Amino acid sequence: MCGIAGVMMASGAAPESRILDALEGALRCRGPDGVGRYCHENVGLVHTRLAIIDLTSGMQPLVGRNSVLVANGEIYNYIELRNEVLANVSFATASDCETVLHLYDREGANCTQRLRGMYAFAIYDPNQKCLMLSRDPFGIKPCYYIETPTCFAFASEPQALVSAGLIDPDLAPHPTIELLQLQFTTGPETIFRGIRRLLPGETLIVKAGRIVERRTRAALPPCPPLKIGEAEALKQLDTVLTDSVKVHQRSDVPYGLFLSSGIDSSAILACMARLNGIPVEAYTASFPNTGIADEYPEAHRLAISLGARHIKVEITADDFWSLLPEIVACLDDPTADYAIVPTYILAREAAKNLKVILCGEGGDEIFAGYSRYRRQIRPRWLGGRVRRRSGPFSAGGVVKDLPSDWRSGIVAAEQAASLSKWTPLQRAQAADCVDFLPHGLLTKLDRCLMAHGVEGRTPLLDPMVAELGFRLPRKLQLGRRGGKYLLRRWLNEHAPQASPFARKKGFTVPVGVWIAAAGERLAPLVANYPGVSAICNPEAVRSLFVSGDTRHLEAAWRLLFFALWHRRHICGLQPHGDAFECLSSL
């Protein structure tokens, strides 16, 4: 896990050292263990390293016979690739990423088809004067780029491109409204005008500072559900899940787990406990004295029964207000998911002992865990609903000019999914995998963990697990008692103490409780903040915080998030003090 960046000048001139210096400095939090640089003619590549595999000789850039690589991520099948595909190759390091370099020398841009892992990497071929940029199919690892009249540039985070002076931090109007309505933004366009995402599974070929070719590797198989019975499906799930957790534990540094009381992380813990000879280190967030359901007691029972070392991380209102500005500051590609708060604080605690954390992201999308999937696939006359048909600002006149097409990104993902041979359920899952998963959940995970030099790994998004889970018959996904039926059945066999068929309360962070208690103080600060007042009616904003109507708290949270985000990433002001102090000073 690292930070990568680079520049290819259109004129043929060498990139300025100050630009490469700025890119490196902006990405140091992603790679505190070392830096590397490669320059050749009109190309400069930068790498900041978080050392996970091959701690001694795995520094980058990696230089091969015909190419140079900078990579962010992990290739989980690197041992198999070395033994089976690259057996005649002489390796200079034990790094998992060196396999990519040799695969490129052998297969060119097709090398990505063999990779099992999470990654964003750049390969420069000096003979062809060609730059290749590629991202894993689920978009677990991030990459952003700009294409200007003077250059093509890329980085692991948008803020690096801004810090290097390659582009100004201007708001793009449509993604701004998406953020407020959806809590994330969709498609290739980011909230920064001119900065684009390398999409999940996308590969770009760049020459002379211009994109000349695009390729895509799909995350999900273009196939209808399997014809498979429950017994055989359970057997296959046990095989692929165990194997995925096993390879996701490949590491030369200590690893652990973020554990909730939910199905996904419980299943991962059950596998880890079976595979490890020492206790698994598991971290769970707890919110004392808030009146919400606390996941810790149930998670603790499971952890102790499986022999894990369980760490309770209590999060209070004081933590929320004091840390929120720095949490938001690490989310340059914004996602207003309130789970950023526990994710960031859990990562800060885990970083004291670990550098790798396994997480359960992706389970709901792959195994059909969201309750809304049932509503989405029903006919309208049976109560079927459109996905995210409204947002917290659809009514009430808070946003001055709410465009009617604010759902266009969601609609595009749904239309693309409808062209396949998938079932309605698969289409709903696939649409989530296009935007909500990579641009919301996985962005949250990446930024909150990398802010502390911790790598997040997602075993449920392994290609082998995803292919099986996505192609399960509907009855093995939705079942009769909630989604993720087959995963629940597997967990019931291997860790029944998790009570997988008990009614789950859902993961909740008491953000609404904390905002309601401070509503009178927050109302003028958020309403009068210039970035908010430019797009919202101040009086309507104030009413969200002081009305006492709990239905308004989601909108209040997103505006609070946006104000702090705008202050840091548009105005360029560093966080200092708590949320109230930051909003009081411009």
SSE layout and pairing:
Elements: E1 2-9, H1 17-26, E2 35-40, E3 43-49, E4 62-63, E5 68-75, H2 78-84, H3 98-107, E6 117-125, E7 130-135, E8 144-147, E9 151-155, H4 158-163, H5 173-182, E10 196-197, E11 202-207, E12 210-216, H6 230-248, E13 255-258, H7 263-275, E14 281-286, H8 296-305, E15 309-314, H9 317-329, H10 340-350, E16 356-358, H11 363-366, H12 372-377, H13 408-418, H14 424-434, H15 436-450, E17 455-457, H16 463-470, H17 474-477, H18 485-494, H19 511-517, H20 519-527, H21 530-533, H22 538-546, H23 553-569, H24 579-584
Parallel strand pairs: 13-14, 13-16, 14-15, 16-17
Antiparallel strand pairs: 1-3, 1-9, 2-3, 4-5, 5-6, 6-7, 7-11, 8-9, 8-10, 11-12
Helix pairs in contact: 6-7, 6-16, 6-18, 7-18, 9-23, 10-15, 13-14, 14-15, 19-23, 20-22
